[in-house]
C-alpha cells in the first residue's frame, strides 16, 4: 500500500497495560503526590495505561532511598553483573511485549519498535561485559623522588546518586543507556521517564525488581518535567544528572545545577553530504529510511542533505519514489513505516514549517500534508534558504531538505553551519575527502559512506555545541559515572 491509499488502521482491540506504580525504596506505589495520570496512544487517543503522577515529595523519598542504598553498599559487583546479564536474557524473551508497549505509547511502528527492544538487549549485555572489566591502574610512584618507597594505584568509585531523565522517542533503549551503566558502575539511580511514554520504563523496572535489585538501587518516579524533572535534577543528594531531550531544556537544567555533573545528550539537524563520485544510490535508499523512521523523531534523524549538482537529479529520482512508497498508518500494523507524531501540535508544526519554507523559495517535491491520526506525510523540500526553520532548527519530524552544491569545500561549510553537532554523514569514493570531512566537521561523530542516523549501542555517542557534552555507550557512560581515587602505600 502506498501513500496514495488511505491511512492503514488495525481493527483489533488495543492492549492495555497496568504497571504496578512507581518504584521507590523497593516498594511499588500506585499513586503519586498528584494522584494518577493517563497515558494515551498518539495514534488514536486510546488508553494505554494509568500511572502515578509524582511530585517533589516523591522525588525526595526516591533520592533519599538511593542515597541510603549507596551508604549500605549491599549490591556488590558480581551481583550487579548477574542482574545485567539476566536482564538482557529476560528482555530478549519479552521483546514482543516491550515492542508492543513502545508502539502504543509513542506510535513507533511495530517493526521499528522490535528493533529498539533488540537494541536494549544489547545495551544491557554490553553493560554487563563492561561491569566485569572496568578497573583502575597502577601508578609508577617511584618514577620521581617524591614517590620513592611508595606503591600507588587508582580505584574507580561510584560518583554517587544518578538522576536519569529520558525522552519519549526511545522509551526503552534510552532508559537502558542510563540505567544499565549506572548499575554497572555501582550508582543507585532515580529514573524519570518521559511523561508521554512511561510504560516501557515501568515494565523494565518491574523486570529488574524481580531479578533481585536491592531496595533503593533503582527508583522510578513518573510525572511531568516541570515537577519531577526539576526537583530531581536540583536535589542536594543527586551527584550526577544524565538527560536526553531538547537543547533548551537540557542547558536550562545544567544552569540550575552548576555544582553537579550534568551530562546532556540533546538534539541536532543532522547533515548528510552526497558527493560525486559516490554510491549515491545507497545514500538515497538509506535517506528514505533515516529521514522518516519513527516519523523523523530521532536526535540523529537525517534532516539536511547536500548533494553534488552533477548527481542531484539522479539522486532525487531515486529518493522520491522510495519516500512516496512509505506506508502510513497504525503503529501496530506490521506493514506501517510511518505513524503519528507524538502530539497533534507537532503535526501542525510540521505543516507550518513546510509552508514557511515554500513561501521562502523552497520547492515541495513530495508530502507536505497533515493527515488524520496526527500523521504528517513524509516530505522532501529542495532548496530552502539557510534561515528557514526546516534548515537551521531541529525538525524532529518527517521532513528532509535537499540542497545542491558545486564543490566539496562548500558542502563542508554548509553542513557545519549549525548550532548543533551530534552526527554527520558523508558519501564519497575519495579517501582524501573522507579524511578531510572527518577532521573538519565539528560533530561528535562523522560517518563515512553512511547516514548520520546510524548508531551502534557500544559506540561513543554524543555531540558538541548545542547537541550536548557527553558520550553515551555503556563503557563511556560507566567511565563518567565513576571517579578516580588514588591510593598510595608507603612501604
UniProtKB/TrEMBL annotation:
GO terms for molecular function: lactaldehyde dehydrogenase (NAD+) activity. Keywords: Oxidoreductase. It comes from the Bacteria. It holds the Pfam family Aldedh. InterPro entries: Ald_DH/histidinol_DH (IPR016161), Ald_DH_C (IPR016163), Ald_DH_N (IPR016162), Aldehyde_DH_dom (IPR015590), ALDH-related_metabolic_enz (IPR051020). Residues 28-487 form the Aldehyde dehydrogenase domain. The keyword Manganese does not apply. Residues 1-21 are annotated as: Disordered. PANTHER family: ALDEHYDE DEHYDROGENASE. Belongs to the aldehyde dehydrogenase family. This is Aldehyde Dehydrogenase. It comes from Thermomonospora curvata (strain ATCC 19995 / DSM 43183 / JCM 3096 / KCTC 9072 / NBRC 15933 / NCIMB 10081 / Henssen B9). The lineage of its organism: Bacteria, Bacillati, Actinomycetota, Actinomycetes, Streptosporangiales.
